[in-house]
Fold this sequence. Notes:
The protein has 150 residues and is of the alpha+beta class.
Amino acid sequence: MTDTxxxxxxxxxxxxxxxxxxxxxxxxxxGLSPSACLRRVQDLERRGVIxxxxxILDPLAMGVGFTAYITVGLNAHTKSAQExxxxxxxxxxxxxxxxxxxxxxxYLLRIEAxxxxxxxxxxxxxxxxxxxxxxxxxxxxxxxxxxxRG
Length: 150
């Protein structure tokens, strides 16, 4: 967080905990008047430090009972292979995150599916049909004792 003072850092921590906090409550927690707090939040939004606000959904309530992280290695280390893979992955609703990473493989994906059978269909019918894919390694999430994604 470049160019962020202690008060702005405190505002951001509070908003990460609860993005729906009222401006009055936020101002109380960070020790500002409501108008000063609102100006700071608006400035953080204008500068792009705060890019948006999200709802955190309960996976089970949404029918998601299976989460896995997958590493994907491509068979060609070219821009066109990466672009084709990323375009295909963007169309897959099971892929909740896609990260281009360093190391022995090119991508790390976070997959959410209803159950193991749904994951297997994604693994076989989506990833298994992409011509760019050379290797797939799955890591099944058994629990998440800490998850601060917003």
